[in-house]
Design goal:
Length: 328
Amino acid sequence: MYTSTFPNVTTDKIVDSLHQKGFFVFEEALTEQYIDELLQEINFNQILVNANDVGVVIAKHQKFLTHCLAKSKKAYDLITSPQILEICENYFQDRYVLINHRIYQTQKISHMPWHTDNNRQVGRQLSSKHDMPGLLFLFYLSDVTKNPFQLVKDSHLWSHKHNHEIYLSDAFIEKKYQKDVINFTLKKGSLILCNIHAVHRAEPFKDNTYTRNTLLFQVDQVGSNVIGHGEKNLVNTEFIDNINPKIMNYLGFGYKTDYPAFPNTSISTLTLQDLISLHRQLLALTLKSSAKNLALSLLPGEIIIQIKRILWNWKSKQINTEKIKDIK
């Protein structure tokens, strides 16, 4: 999972950097092999339509696997790794919870506004900014030469003055803090960890040939009195081979959450190109489904059951034959 050099960085050094600078960066924290295996667990080109599963959604030029704890064992192991929990344990003074997580792919064009992530919501709407401590973890899953994460130096110290605003304008940052903007152009596997009260964004870009893959998750100190803060964590129980009270609290077992999954998607958030691709898939499936439904409507139920029995027996024999070949 982690490169041989990352474990050499002490948790104290990471936490000290977070307290002093508001962020910590480590280039190539993850091995390339681990990232490649993680991405193999995700099919960004498969969009589920009437499929009873967890999968990828599209929001314009970005594709999201929001519920990666339910889909990717590699993502689960990383998000719940001892190193991540140790950082949280040393940084926070009270109960902390994983309040959102996602793997996403950004393509072609993006213009994210300057913002902080200390948000409270009512439904899908931002209701206010909170003062709870929180950490944002970003792992680059590809080399990032464009659209890098950007952070305004020391902004975690003054961002509270703008808690009445959802975003800060490009013009405002350029006028007052341009010299303080830090660009994190880093290699695949790099880790960026920052205070959620820091002003940040991904640098705008436009390039039809460029794609960036990122794993992002946020951990907030919710204490014992905060209720409803965060998105639901859907977890595949098959992945849980390291369960203990600390992980259960971290994943929010028994903790109420009110926020809907991000992003808010529907047919309307697909690009024209994605819509055309989807219609092509649906056309082939429609023809196949129509032929199947026509056959089912014409054949008596008893004949259909008999055909199913024959097909099941044939498939069973094929599987057994393959097993015998493997044994030999």
